[in-house]
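Quick one: co-fold with heme C.
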Amino acid sequence: MNTSKIARFFALAFLLAGMASSCVKEGPMGPAGEDGTDGIDGKDGADGNVTCLNCHTTAKKEAITAQYEMSVHGLSPHAGSPTYIYAGAGESRKDCAICHTHEGFVEVMFTGRDSIAQALAAPTRIGCETCHSKHVSFDFTADGQDYALRATKPVNLIMDERSIDFGSSTNLCVNCHQPREGAPKADANGNFYISSSRYGAHHGPQSTLLDGIGGYEVGTGYPGRGTHAHRKNADCTTCHMHQYKDQHGGHTFKVSVAGCTACHSSATSLDVKGVQTEVAALMTELKGLLVAKGVITTTGSRKVGTFPINVAGAAYNYNLIEEDRSMGVHNPVYIKKILQNSIAAMK
Ligand code: HEC
Ligand code: HEC
Ligand code: HEC
Ligand code: HEC
Ligand code: HEC
Ligand code: HEC
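Sure, here it is.
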């Protein structure tokens, strides 16, 4: 918190504390009727103040900060420096900085544009004030608890004209955890030109897969958009920010079985009903077929060249599910169908 925020916080806290105590003090020991009214007022004030302290104590802030240091948000190394520097600094990284740096995200959330105006010289990592900014109101009972999140609106996707709305804190995550490029479309000859070894959705396609969209959909049998229970009844925070325990959940953003047991009471690992194992096997099978078609290397890089659309599409799907990294969990039905149909189309 910077000084002006601290000042504002104390001003508000002071105001609320004042409201609470003045109500209590004014409560006269008078006739029964008046006493009742005053009593209700006093209780309201005290409640408001206590609610603030659910989140605004030093102990809480320190605990959350310690959790956050376990998250890789912006810290994992790439090409010799943390990702926020690698993908954040310089002219060629203006489009990357919007998801990888504090400055870039804050700027585009304010301007609504898809890139930043000027290249960053000294980007900083994603931190508390990247995701949090101001409370919309302090009347949490009427307006709901907003966690002072910076972005809560539905998100217009980068890959196409659609948008996603979880109606919850999860809209914040969707801004960054979405594909940068959609599935390939055939040219007039039924082919597609892969222009780079990095061709694909990029690293964070989690929200579109949870929503059940964005794969290259060859064949039939796909579940409808938004139909999976993990989309309807859960969201990013349910599984990744459940109650902090043993270096998982909370602001570590790391999933553990504790994030599943509210619904899968008998789960003992993330491999619920063996779905992660099943998806891993489908991925191995698809990879073998794609290597044989000459569209990816044995390390999974895409090969530059013109390929029949189903081959390019299956290569896109392989990379998509690899980058999703949930091994099927984000949307077991859609992810398995994408892989099964891609495999069938390669045979
Ligand atoms: C459920 C948790 C929660 C509750 C309850 C809560 N806040 Fe916050 N508040 C946050 C978070 C998260 C932030 C942003 C991160 C930070 O500063 O710790 C924040 C930021 C703030 C800020 C700085 C940004 C701004 O809006 O200007 C003020 C001031 C503030 N809160 C006041 C209050 C007051 C007053 C109450 C009680 C009426 C309250 N908060 C209740 C979570 C909460
Ligand atoms: C729409 C948001 C978004 C944009 C734009 C974006 N990234 Fe990312 N990137 C992510 C997310 C989210 C992850 C982490 C996903 C995960 O951990 O599964 C990531 C991960 C990465 C990683 C780490 C992968 C690894 O191997 O550890 C690198 C490197 C990277 N991005 C580079 C870039 C570069 C370079 C650009 C610009 C050309 C870019 N990103 C643009 C969202 C974005
Ligand atoms: C990547 C985004 C992100 C970052 C970074 C982040 N938060 Fe949060 N924070 C959230 C979300 C989302 C929620 C609401 C979770 C929910 O809906 O249950 C939240 C909730 C909170 C709460 C209320 C939760 C509770 O336990 O009652 C506090 C306090 C808070 N954050 C403080 C911080 C602080 C301090 C930091 C920096 C150390 C930080 N946050 C960094 C996304 C973030
Ligand atoms: C400002 C963009 C941004 C926002 C908002 C954001 N993320 Fe991320 N997230 C990233 C990037 C970038 C990475 C990869 C960082 C790296 O590899 O250096 C990442 C990494 C992750 C990881 C991988 C952590 C690990 O330990 O491997 C998880 C899980 C994650 N984010 C979940 C979430 C959730 C849940 C939310 C919403 C509450 C969220 N993120 C909001 C950009 C963002
Ligand atoms: C139903 C629970 C569930 C939901 C909902 C969910 N995730 Fe995950 N997520 C998982 C599981 C399980 C993994 C795999 C973790 C593992 O195998 O270690 C995972 C993996 C990831 C990873 C790879 C890094 C890591 O922590 O392993 C990222 C990044 C991620 N999820 C982001 C998101 C985002 C963003 C959302 C919301 C759009 C989301 N997840 C929704 C369960 C969930
Ligand atoms: C909000 C409730 C909820 C949460 C939280 C949740 N799930 Fe689910 N999950 C469901 C429902 C409902 C289904 C569909 C019914 C079924 O197959 O059990 C489902 C289905 C699945 C399936 C497909 C099962 C099959 O037979 O094909 C897997 C795998 C799965 N969940 C894994 C997870 C994991 C791992 C977590 C925790 C990281 C998790 N789920 C968290 C509600 C939830």
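If it helps, The first strand starts at residue 77 and ends at 78.
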